[in-house]
Amino acid sequence: xGEIIRMALILVAVMLMLVVDAAPKEGRIYNNVxxxxxxxxxxxxxxxxxxxxxxxxxxxxxxxxxxxxxxVDVILSTSLAKLRYKYVxxxxxxxxxxxxxxxxxxEKLSTDPSGIKVLVAYVHKKVLKxxxxxxxxxxxxxxxxxxxxxxxEEDAKIFASWGIDYLKQCFKTCPTRPITWNWP
Length: 184
Description:
The structure is a single chain. The chain has a four-stranded parallel sheet. It has six helices and four strands, in the order ααβααβαβαβ. It has helices at 2-18, 35-42, 56-59, 65-77, 116-125, 152-162; strands at residues 51-54, 85-90, 129-135, 166-170. By secondary structure, it is an alpha/beta fold. The chain starts with a helix and ends in a 14-residue tail after the last strand. α6 (152-162) links the parallel β3 (129-135) and β4.
């Protein structure tokens, strides 16, 4: 657990170094902005890019509930939430290596014993958002788990039913293999 806290604190330090002018600007005036764009800005959707953290760069396939929960607490215990850091993203290796009989993802209960819905509830209770990763190849970049190729709509419905707020849908070639496209 000490390693998780240490990495979460390093993550916070890096995030703080990257923050240049991301703080909310009170009384911002949006002159010459269309009503649609003004509504997006008022909803806090277009002022900054989605800001948060992702488990992949340090933990790779070694993620679990504690690793996902630690940055939530760090974001809230520092000023990062006030700077609009609000996403905690689960990257690769969060599902079992085989799908169920309907080709749906099977949650990896060995690393996330409570399940994704409980993790979503934990993050939402802290007033943050949870993201998840998938890929457009037959396997994700880890080359270990199934991806969304030909099941994008079904997978999106599953993510929505879990309460996932953000989807990292990777369309690039992974370093270990090229993507084989399956165009209709």
